[in-house]
Specification:
single chain, alpha+beta, 265 residues, 5 helices, six-stranded antiparallel β-sheet
Length: 265
């Protein structure tokens, strides 16, 4: 498998985007909704799956698309091909505040495992498939179910992490315990499992869930400080109830709004 060789540059701090430079006839594939801008002479085309099995005919395309269905993603991806004579740029943006992580699959022994919603874009030729969990505990309680995404090939891929990114290099046998939603991805040499927190007080009053992930080295692990599910949960909890705004900064709630001159009851 030989993916297209692409150059790139990441811009921004909290709301990042990646600009990819394509030579003539080079292409990049991306998730729907991640496109930001592109130069002229770049052709945009909707394809089945990830484009890595296009040469295998209809069955190859259907197999590639079917793998994506298992992760809850769309059957289609978008390919951006430079049909011009010189170098052209196309950019893709992060879906929410965080960091874009470049992954060189040739340095990861051709495979990288990530959360199913972390993938942003990749050089054409990179396969975006599914990684089935072989352990029951991981499948039932891991937050990501029995499957995660796997990126395979020898090209560049880009994944997105929410909030601040932490990169951990684990030695052989070294263990890192992480909230299940905070995992962005890890190299294929890392062993991943789910562990019960234990203890009645922790279970009932801890507020951190019943399980966390244990990642055992050797290998590289990427951890995010703000999973989208956590962000969405906080936003939902702060939504106005019965059409009224939720009191902030005060235990008085609605009374505090009244004292502040907000009389919308």
């Amino acid at each position: 498998m030989n993916a297209h060789e692409i150059d790139y540059q990441i811009f921004g701090e909290e709301m990042q985007y990646v600009e990819i430079e394509l030579d003539p006839q080079e292409a990049v594939v991306a998730e729907a909704g991640s496109f930001m801008m592109m130069d002229s002479d770049i052709k945009m085309d909707t394809i089945f799956g990830d484009g890595s099995n296009q040469e295998k005919g209809v069955l190859g395309k259907l197999f590639s698309a079917g793998k994506r269905m298992l992760t809850g993603e769309s059957l289609f991806m978008t390919a951006f091909l430079n049909i011009g004579q010189g170098k052209k740029q196309v950019s893709f943006a992060s879906p929410y505040p965080g960091k874009i992580v470049p992954i060189d699959l040739s340095e990861k022994q051709g495979k990288f495992i990530c959360q199913k919603d972390a993938f942003l874009c990749a050089a054409k030729g990179v396969s975006v498939g599914v990684e089935f969990s072989k352990k029951l505990g991981r499948g039932l309680f891991g937050g990501e179910g029995f499957i995660m995404q796997k990126l395979e090939g020898d090209g560049m891929a880009f994944v997105h992490a929410g909030g601040t990114l932490a990169k951990k290099e684990l030695a052989a046998g070294e263990v890192l315990k992480v909230d299940t939603g905070c995992i962005v991805g890890f190299s294929q040499t890392v062993d991943y499992d789910i562990e019960f927190i234990g203890g009645i007080k922790n279970t009932v009053f801890g507020g951190e869930g019943l399980f966390f992930a244990t990642l055992r080295g050797p290998g590289t692990v990427y951890v995010q400080s703000l999973p989208f599910s956590r962000l969405a949960g906080r936003v939902l909890s702060a939504l106005p109830r019965n059409g009224n705004s939720k009191g902030e900064g005060s235990l008085l709630g609605g009374i505090g709004d009244l004292l502040d001159g907000d009389n919308r009851f």
